Amino acid sequence: MTALFEKRFAELEQQLIRLQNATTMRGDPRKEGQTEYLAPESMLNWSVKVKALLERVCGKESSYLQRFTEADQNQMFDIGIARFERMRAVFLAAKEDFEGGYLNSVRNLVQAEVFGSELEQASELLAAQYVPAAAVIAGVVLETSLRNLCTEHGITHGSLNRMNDELVKAGAYNSLQHKRITAMAAIRNSAAHGKKGEFEPEDVKGMLDDVERFLASTLQ
To answer: Domains in the chain: how many in total?
Structure first.
């Protein structure tokens, strides 16, 4: 579990508890039909934050985010805080799975499949002698994986080299990996600017292998 996401889940659970404590009864106490009431703006404030967290942790297409979004919709025959209770149930389920390590595992599997497909495309381009294109695609995969690592470590996104510097300082990987990424970034930049004389097909082949190894070590 990443400390940043763990902290955010805990903060939103505390806000959830405060919301539960803020519910009041609405209706005439002399008549039947009193229901629990929660200020809509308070519920909206919490739900927006939960959606943002689930999107970052699980991804935009995750079942967790979809279920939470569905729970946030008013349904026929809703009474009192029924919508809030549905959202609460989904949030607590997601929090439990996160703490068990299941959310990161699912997301990493999806990312590994996407990255693997892109690296296969890069390998095919390299075999067809489209060397710069292969290097650019491998560079995109590398930069995306660095962005994900920065998110996990609470580091602001930036250029590939800056993220590389910040990640090694944060202990995400060692100085040897930092040097490899610096070399891969140089190949990617040369390819993107059409400087074919600054790298060879063998360099790009090595880059593809290094990116694949890097993914294997980070997507666990």
So the answer is: 2
